[in-house]
């Protein structure tokens, strides 16, 4: 299976995948550990992410997955999507459909994801475009809460060093999960020309600003004691906005976030298709149906607050391994062995 991507499509895929899961949920966990220094911690981790992008661009030809590393990544992405589905279902049952059986909700949106995933690859690539006006509206209504914000809450403490303060850096990496898809998708660019540093910096700036806004607004809106008790601070902030055309603006944005999340799942499914179906396999649609069925059954079985809280606290370590550590190890090993993507394509042709 193969596709051709433009640079804009590559960055759009990455943006949706890197924000779809954690954008409404990770603020409270980083602020809980970083307190008023959460924005400083996030900026430091974001700089590391930018350096990682530069490294990936220079060495992407050495990112070659063998059977073992392919299996590891497919398991990791499957787990990531499963946690994603659990969280989506939890939010929907909490905010919109408290009386609807979870299996019904899971079946509905996974059916949409399955249909999109078996369509032409270009469908999964371009579907993220529909989110652009939605995200613009999202930001516009976020700024309507400015009169209720307290800018002094952004002043960092620096001296406030608790035993778990350093964990703020760990949980800040949630925002940059999915960075490994850059080197997975890099070889599918229409033109294999070098991506300029300016383009990488622009993407880094947009992603970082998008997240930094959510952390800053959460800090300015809630006290440190309140934020620890609120799992989706962004939705609670939108809940406070009063407009004439909607009584519950938060529900309106839950639907936007649901669409955003579905596109993220479809994009993850696309990346998994590119890795798993790199060689032709029998009955690809049946295998994808089985995949989504397993995801749905597992998510329905595990959808408990205690399970979600556990995953929210510990999935970050897998995130660090598969996003930051393992890609670098794969690149270094292949560079030592002199194994590149182009050589692999020649050997398989």
Radius of gyration: 20 Å
Q: What is the CATH topology descriptor?
A: Amino acid/polyamine transporter I
N-to-C SSE string, H for helix and E for strand = HHHHHHHHHHHHHHHH
Q: How much helicity do the residues have?
A: 55-70%
> Any low-confidence stretches, pLDDT <50, length ≥5?
none
Q: Please indicate the count of domains.
A: 1
List the total number of helices.
16
Second rung of CATH, namely the architecture: Up-down Bundle
* CATH H level, superfamily name: Amino acid/polyamine transporter I
Largest sheet: none
Strand content: under 5%
| Separation of the first and last Cα atoms | 13 Å
Structural class, from helix and strand content? mainly alpha
Spatial shape? globular
Return the average pLDDT rounded to an integer. 84
Number of strands: 0
CATH class: Mainly Alpha
Give the SSE layout.
Elements: H1 7-19, H2 27-34, H3 38-59, H4 67-95, H5 102-118, H6 121-126, H7 131-143, H8 167-172, H9 181-185, H10 197-221, H11 224-227, H12 233-239, H13 249-276, H14 284-302, H15 305-337, H16 341-348
């Amino acid at each position: 299976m193969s596709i051709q991507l433009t640079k804009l499509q590559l960055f759009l895929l990455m943006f949706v995948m890197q924000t779809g899961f954690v954008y409404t949920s990770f603020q409270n966990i980083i602020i809980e550990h970083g307190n008023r220094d959460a924005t400083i911690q996030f900026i430091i981790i974001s700089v590391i992410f930018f350096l990682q992008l530069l490294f990936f661009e220079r060495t992407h030809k050495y990112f070659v997955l063998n059977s073992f590393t392919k299996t590891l990544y497919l398991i990791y992405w499957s787990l990531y999507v499963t946690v994603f589905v659990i969280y989506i279902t939890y939010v929907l049952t909490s905010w919109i459909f408290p009386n609807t059986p979870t299996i019904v909700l899971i079946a509905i949106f996974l059916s949409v994801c399955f249909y999109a995933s078996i369509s032409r690859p270009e469908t999964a690539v371009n579907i993220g475009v529909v989110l652009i006006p939605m995200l613009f509206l999202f930001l516009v209504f976020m700024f309507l809460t400015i009169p209720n914000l307290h800018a002094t809450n952004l002043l960092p403490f620096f001296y406030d060093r608790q035993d778990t303060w350093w964990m703020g850096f760990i949980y800040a990496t949630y925002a940059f999960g999915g960075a490994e898809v850059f080197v997975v998708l890099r070889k599918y660019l229409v033109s294999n020309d070098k991506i300029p540093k300016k383009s990488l910096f622009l993407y880094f700036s947009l992603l970082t600003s998008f997240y930094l806004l959510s952390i800053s607004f959460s800090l300015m809106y809630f006290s440190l004691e309140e934020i620890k008790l609120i799992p989706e601070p962004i939705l609670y902030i939108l809940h406070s906005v009063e407009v004439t055309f909607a009584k519950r603006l938060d529900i309106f944005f839950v639907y936007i976030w649901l669409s955003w999340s579905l596109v993220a799942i479809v994009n993850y499914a696309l990346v998994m298709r590119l890795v798993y179906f790199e060689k032709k396999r029998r009955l690809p649609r049946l295998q994808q149906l089985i995949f989504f069925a397993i995801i749905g059954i597992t998510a329905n079985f595990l959808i408990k607050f205690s399970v979600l809280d556990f995953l929210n606290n510990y999935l970050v370590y897998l995130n660090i391994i598969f996003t930051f550590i393992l890609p670098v190890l794969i690149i270094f090993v292949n560079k030592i062995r002199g194994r590149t993507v182009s050589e692999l394509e020649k050997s398989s042709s």
